């Protein structure tokens, strides 16, 4: 059974950093992604990564966030630097079978999801 468990969320001041981690159980060789959803808004893609390490980022986080995979630990990580109040949201990790091409940022393309971890950035 595939299970994803996020950790690392919290509250920080603007300009601060957080590292989110997603432990993946029962699944390997996947494409992974991080998504977020703020109250009253739709879930949006933040960053994604293929099994080969190809990455895709939303324009709003380019240059500030870095997605990575640790294949030895089977974790999917998101380093978030220079955080802004508008980054405040529930963050979710997701996984899907490997495909050719750039890993997508559309939530509908992912089959497996974690429960989410809250990130709050104060000004």
From the N-terminal CA to the C-terminal CA, the straight-line distance is: 41 Å
Summarize the biggest pleated sheet: 7 strands, mixed
**Class from helix and strand fractions:** mainly beta
Helix fraction bin? under 10%
Overall mean pLDDT score? Answer: 96
Radius of gyration: 13 Å
Low-confidence stretches: none
> Strand tally, please?
11
Number of helical segments with 4 or more residues: 0
Element-by-element helix/strand order: EEEEEEEEEEE
The best one-word shape is globular
**Beta-strand residue percentage:** over 45%
Please name the defining characteristics of this protein.
globular; 0% helix; mainly beta; 123 residues; 11 strands
Walk me through the structure:
The protein is an all-beta fold. The chain has strands at residues 3-7, 10-13, 18-25, 31-37, 44-49, 55-57, 65-70, 75-80, 89-96, 112-113, 117-122. The strands form 2 sheets. Strands 2, 4, 5, 6, 9, 10 and 11 form a 7-stranded mixed beta sheet that branches. A hairpin with a 4-residue loop joins strand 7 (65-70) and strand 8. The radius of gyration is 13 Å and the shape is globular. It starts with a strand and ends with a strand.
